[in-house]
Amino acid sequence: MKQVYLLTGRPGTGKTSLIKQAVAEMRGRAGGFYTEEIRSGGVRQGFRLVTLDGRSAILAHIDIHSPYRVSKYGVDIDSLDRVGVSALREATEQCDLVVIDEIGKMELFSVSFREAVLRIIDSGKRVLGTIMLNSNPWADAIKRQPQVNLVAVTRAN
């Protein structure tokens, strides 16, 4: 039986909301992280990474000057590794469910993140996550893993 469920779909279709709802309703312990928008005056300024145990860090922001960029956002790889990858490692060791929201362009800049995702998928743990819709060689290889059940999320479903 497949243990890894990865939601994919266009931005704004409710993937993160579905993950939060599933975690709230599950029995057992969940760990990992999700991402949320940082807004000011109704305008998106960046993205915050939030762990299920309450830690947070800025993942990307228009004011971050970094060689790692997605569109207008500078990506803070150190914060991702320190908070996000750490949360994934802890969840793999201690939890019944590992949450990864998301496997996307920003996160894939981190070698430690990619290594953690591979370990988690091979661990036999239950995983609920999101993965980028657009084609990317690394993400596409994850989507093809035999343990992965890819679920397309749309506004209609």
From TrEMBL:
<feature type="domain" description="AAA+ ATPase">
    <location>
        <begin position="1"/>
        <end position="154"/>
    </location>
</feature>
<dbReference type="InterPro" id="IPR004948">
    <property type="entry name" value="Nuc-triphosphatase_THEP1"/>
</dbReference>
<dbReference type="GO" id="GO:0005524">
    <property type="term" value="F:ATP binding"/>
</dbReference>
<dbReference type="InterPro" id="IPR003593">
    <property type="entry name" value="AAA+_ATPase"/>
</dbReference>
<dbReference type="InterPro" id="IPR027417">
    <property type="entry name" value="P-loop_NTPase"/>
</dbReference>
<dbReference type="GO" id="GO:0017111">
    <property type="term" value="F:ribonucleoside triphosphate phosphatase activity"/>
</dbReference>
<keyword id="KW-0547">Nucleotide-binding</keyword>
<protein>
    <recommendedName>
        <fullName>AAA+ ATPase domain-containing protein</fullName>
    </recommendedName>
</protein>
<keyword id="KW-0067">ATP-binding</keyword>
<keyword id="KW-0378">Hydrolase</keyword>
<dbReference type="Pfam" id="PF03266">
    <property type="entry name" value="NTPase_1"/>
</dbReference>
